[in-house]
Amino acid sequence: MSGRRDFLSMPAPENYVAGLGRGATGFTTRSDLGPAREGPSEEQMKEMLAKRAASLGQAAPSAYGVTEKKEEDEEEDRFQDPDNEVGLFSSGMNYDKDDDEADRIYQEVDEKMDKRRRARREAREQQERDDYEKNNPKIQLQFADLKRALGSVSEEEWAALPEVGDMTGRAKRAREARMANSRSYAVPDSVLQAASKSGELDTSISSNDADSGTMTNFASIGAAQLSALTVRLDSAASNPGTQTTTSGTATSVDPKGYITALDRKQATGDEVPVEDINRARVLLESAVKTNVHNGPGYVALARLEEVAGKIHTAKKVIQRGCEMCPKSIVVWEEAIRLNRESIHNAKIIAANGIKLNPKAIKLWQAAIDLEQTPAARKKVTRQALDHNPQSVELWKTLINDTEDIENVKLLFAKATETVPLSEELWISYARVSDADAAQQVLNRARKAIPTSWAIWVHASRLQEELGKIELCDKIMERAVKALIKENAMIKREEWLAQAEICEEEGDKATAASIVKRTVGWGLDEDDERRDTWLEDAKSISGRGRYETARAILGHAVSIFPYSTTVWHASADLEKHHGTADSLLRVLEHAVNACPNSESLWLLYAREMWQSGDPEGARKVLGRSFEQLPGNENLYTRAVDFEVDAGNYEQARSFLQVARESAATDRIFMKSAVLERQLENYEAAIDICNQGLQNWPGSWKLHAIKGQIYEQLSKLKEAQEAFSIGTRAAPKSPMLFILLSRIQEKQGAVVKARSTLDRGRQQNPKNAELLCEAVRLERRQNNVPAAQKIMATALQECPNSGLLWAEKIMHLESRTQRRPRALEAIKKVEKDPQLFVVVARILWSERKLDKAASWFTKAIVLDPDYADGWIWFYKFLEQHGTEEKKGEVLSKAAMAEPRHGEIWQSVAKNPKFARLSVEEKVKSAARLAE
């Protein structure tokens, strides 16, 4: 025991940390220095305890969670780092071309699978969002009906509403007010003394005021501010690369950002405040002093002095920057720019900068721009190329400064030899060469850059310009094979973009060849390709690239020759953006490929008729009868053609054959309508009776029969015909409407209401019947009843444009029409009837431009809605030009609209049956109210 040293004088054990056993670590209370040294981590603590236990020959303390490291763990850790592979994987396998191709194939497969599922996933997500919004409506939607009801509140009711008072803390506020009024304060003697001396003039200064502290020491305040500013600037200079911050105790400068700010100030012409300039100058000078090799800092400071109007100071600053940062290109560029008014000085600066940075292309370009003559520019450019022979920009500058075409070719030859991997140089070389030489140049370019698709495209364009259009397909076919071999094939969308560029620049054959060879690249061989190509053709034609769209559809037709959808899309493109001959050629190929397609035969016959060849249309229909015998649509189209041509006997014979071979209720209806137009009323009624014997539930035959009796002023027979029709076809709303109108015309308004009620029972939530009930009450001047029925109708059919239009135009005051129209559009979203209503409202308010815009929206939204064309033409009759009216009529004839209340009243009238679409629009415009 006597030999044992004192405990306090013993050396500390290895890796000993004071206070570690009780969990204590060092700390500090000074916030400006930050936290003290961090203590050891948990792993380090466990390792030290285990080492100490091993030195003492004891087991590791389990209380601290220290366990021995097993060899299995070590072996497992060996395989966690792919860069430290040993054993079986230590052969040093490299990532070769096959691995790259495999990764690319897996990536393309993933992209394709994602693209195939994207449409369905987006549709499902949209459906989920719609369901959520439907099940969880917003507050404003729940109270929309209550907000609308506020419009019917009278002024007296509004005035009778009580004022809402603020009852929050009323007692507390009253108590505080009373206490404030009852308080009194004693006036200090200093105030009284100051008041007594307020009128005196004292010019003496006491010598003891400074010591007493009653006077402000401005010198000490200024010194303190200067000291604080110095600390902040020094702190800013210590971090020159960080972003500028002027708040807090740390400030740093971003010279590039400040350069941008100064450029913006100069561009906008704004005057920079002097305070900002001084503040920025202090910051930038501090940044430059603390880091003398910061080139952007000198540039920023020089531009600051330039903005402040101190050009001489700016030159000195940038000169110092050139001395301290000789390798900074931006500093030399700024020095050249600031000395541009003296070309001699600028050249000296450029020469000095180039000596120190001979590889700086920007400095060489600046030096070239300083030269005034082409010879001097070429001399400097050649010197630049001696130091930078691989610079494409310098070669382009030298070639642009050369005027002789032969010298240009020689320069291009040298440039492509020096920089063989520049696509731009090769293509430009081919453009300045003649035909044979250009082909040789492009062949050498393909060998030099086998992965360049631009060279192949230019080769195809060259052949097209030479008139060898048949070679374009072969070139693009070879291009695709070569690029696939080199694994340099670009995406399908990029190929289509290049095709659009070629078409825009006039090389249509090249665009078609690109589409033909690449439009299917990356797509699976399934029916989804057809939808993708149709969408591509639609979007590309929308951008005005019709040849590219035509090529896409042509390729789609070759892959899907039996798809009527593709043929219709191709025919539609030719109809709107092609010629009549091209349209007829497409339709001829279409009916040959799809002889059983009724729609293609009808379209072919109609286009043949409209092109001015009625005999050809008859032949087309004859061929269609052979392919589709007994087809009623073909017979009715043939009848329409003969009626338009005035061959009524031929039309009757067609209908007679149709009634015998392809008897349908539509054929009988067409026959009755033709006899009615020819004023053979007895024959028309007989045909209706014959048809009703076979098809008693055909509501159109009942309607035609009743309308014929009504036209003959036989109202009793007409009422009986309509009544029988309502019992035979109770699901036809139009028969109930026609019957109610006959009863109203006879004066039986009560029966008319009953008929409409019966029709609503048979056809619940039918907008036409509800609207007719409203109109019946309105015609009887019973507006309250009409409004009541309309309220019920909108509850049953809230998305009916017909009901909203009736309500807005006939049941709302003029001042309430626009808000109601806005509410209806939000409710129904896209309905041409509402667009027409809005246009009519704007028309009545003399906002003609907006009205024309809404009329245009209506006809674009639904060209088949004829009333939109009618109202637009009526508007143009008052406020449009003859050219605009003619354009609207021609577009209406092309659209061939068939729906609309005003249109039906004219189209179904036998007096207007023989008129063209343009004449029917004019007649309907005169009847529109």
Structure write-up:
There is one protein chain. The protein has 929 residues and is mainly α. Among the domains are: 72 residues, no CATH class; 100 residues, Serine Threonine Protein Phosphatase 5, Tetratricopeptide repeat (Alpha Horseshoe), CATH 1.25.40. The protein has 50 helices and no strands. The termini are far apart. The relative contact order is 0.02.
Reconstruct the topology from this structure:
Layout: H1 42-55, H2 71-78, H3 97-135, H4 139-142, H5 144-149, H6 155-160, H7 170-182, H8 189-196, H9 209-212, H10 218-237, H11 255-268, H12 274-290, H13 295-307, H14 311-324, H15 329-338, H16 343-356, H17 361-370, H18 374-387, H19 392-400, H20 405-418, H21 423-432, H22 435-448, H23 453-465, H24 470-485, H25 492-504, H26 508-518, H27 528-542, H28 546-559, H29 564-577, H30 580-593, H31 598-610, H32 614-627, H33 632-645, H34 648-661, H35 665-677, H36 681-694, H37 699-711, H38 715-728, H39 733-745, H40 749-762, H41 767-779, H42 783-796, H43 801-810, H44 817-828, H45 832-844, H46 848-861, H47 866-879, H48 882-895, H49 901-907, H50 917-927
Helix pairs in contact: 10-12, 11-13, 12-13, 13-14, 13-15, 14-15, 15-16, 16-17, 17-18, 18-19, 19-20, 20-21, 21-22, 22-23, 23-24, 24-26, 25-26, 26-28, 27-28, 28-29, 29-30, 30-31, 31-32, 31-33, 32-33, 33-34, 34-35, 35-36, 35-37, 36-37, 37-38, 37-39, 38-39, 39-40, 39-41, 40-41, 41-42, 43-44, 43-45, 44-45, ...
TPR repeats: 832-865
Pfam families: HAT_PRP39_C, PRP1_N, TPR_16
Domain PRP1 splicing factor N-terminal: 12-170
